[in-house]
Design a protein that fits this description.
The protein is mostly helical. It is built from ten helices and two strands; from the N terminus they run H-H-H-H-H-H-H-H-H-H-E-E. The protein has a two-stranded antiparallel sheet with strand order 1-2.
Length: about 190
């Protein structure tokens, strides 16, 4: 963390995260048919980059010095988190069903018979969920150090993104909970 702060690389990580998000949303759909013909591992690694950078930022922003160093880039990171929360709110029915309906046991034969397109869609959904869960931590760490951060960051949180209003439906929705095949409640952790 010290090396990232010393060399002013937190801002670069935020930019890399935004590029990965944009690539996944804009470029990947255009090349998806061609990627399906390749190894699924290659496509997974390309999409997983967003999750990796998101996780690295989560570790960094736990520390006050990293939040202070990122300063203006945090405005863009708040927008990124807001987009993730809006996406989760838009998929409320999916998360509600996931929480209330036990998942079915998956037959290994169906997994083996999946098309490459179906496999990539599943991977993309899992990565999107992971990034959305990390967004909760990112916002928490930013708000933990809010007293040491600049006014534009507070403005972005409270006025532009209206983060409290974006989070209220998610607290009621509880997308981090689901029922497994045994009917037991599972909680997303780490």
């Amino acid at each position: 963390m010290e090396a990232f702060v010393t060399h002013d690389k937190i801002t670069m990580l935020v930019k890399d995260l935004l590029v990965a998000e944009t690539w996944k949303a804009q470029v990947f759909p255009m090349i998806k048919p061609h990627v399906c013909e390749l190894s699924s591992l290659k496509s997974y690694i390309c999409m997983y980059h967003e999750s990796s950078v998101c996780n690295l930022l989560e570790v960094m922003l736990y520390h006050r010095s990293a939040c202070e160093n990122a300063d203006d880039a945090l405005v863009e990171l708040i927008d990124y988190c807001a987009r993730k929360f809006i996406n989760m709110n838009n998929q409320a029915k999916f998360y509600e069903d996931r929480r209330n309906t036990p998942s079915l046991r998956v037959d290994p034969k169906t997994i083996l018979n999946q098309t490459a397109d179906q496999e990539i869609d599943k991977q993309s959904t899992d990565i999107e969920f992971s990034c959305s869960m990390i967004a909760f931590s990112l916002i928490r760490f930013i708000t933990d150090h809010l007293s040491d951060l600049s006014v534009p960051i507070v403005h972005q949180l409270m006025e532009a993104s209206d983060m409290p209003c974006a989070l209220v439906p998610l607290l009621e929705l509880k997308p981090w909970l689901r029922k497994n095949a045994k009917g037991e409640m599972e909680k997303f952790e780490d």
